[in-house]
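> forwarded from #structure-qc
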């Protein structure tokens, strides 16, 4: 079957098998390997992307469900102006070690900041509670998100940028 899907502002028309998961469509068919595939059982959150602006675990979504919709992956966070603040926050605050969980953490954190520009530690921990990091103990991830909150707004959502900077 054929689907039309917009990924990181680029539109694709692709032939897929109906059973294909979104995570495999992104990684294997579009070569967007920034989205990681960890557990395949909706536990780890390494596969989180946005589907029409909402974070989803792409191992639990069929690619066909993205037909006619917009997907944003970690490759779509940075702009020509540089890293998204949340990426810079993870860099500044050592929010990653092996980096396997990081794409999902970044997408969830960016979404959180777009909806709550000044989240508390508790709100950050709740937002990432569906995601597992085996390395960091989460402390530096929380610090990284706070760094992003304190330094800038979204680079992917103009409306949120305005809201977050006023
Ligand atoms: S690969 Fe999707 S939640 Fe782990
Ligand atoms: S940095 Fe290794 S799993 Fe999070």
């Amino acid at each position: 079957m054929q689907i039309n899907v917009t990924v990181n502002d680029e539109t694709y028309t692709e032939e897929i098998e109906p059973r294909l998961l979104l995570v495999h469509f992104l990684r294997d068919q579009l070569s967007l390997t920034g989205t990681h595939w960890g557990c395949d059982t909706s536990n780890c959150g390494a596969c989180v992307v946005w589907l029409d602006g909402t974070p989803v675990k792409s191992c639990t979504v069929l690619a066909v469900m993205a037909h006619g919709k917009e997907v944003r992956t970690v490759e779509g966070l940075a702009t020509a102006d540089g890293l998204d603040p949340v990426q810079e926050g993870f860099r500044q605050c050592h929010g990653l070690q092996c980096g396997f969980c990081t794409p999902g953490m970044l997408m969830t954190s960016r979404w959180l900041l777009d909806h709550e520009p000044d989240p508390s530690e508790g709100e950050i921990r709740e937002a990432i509670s569906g995601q597992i990091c085996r390395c960091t103990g989460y402390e530096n991830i929380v610090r990284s998100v706070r760094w992003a909150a304190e330094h800038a707004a979204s680079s992917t959502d103009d409306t949120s940028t305005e809201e977050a900077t006023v």
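QC bot note: The two ends are 46 Å apart (CA to CA). Residues 102-115 form the longest helix (14 residues).
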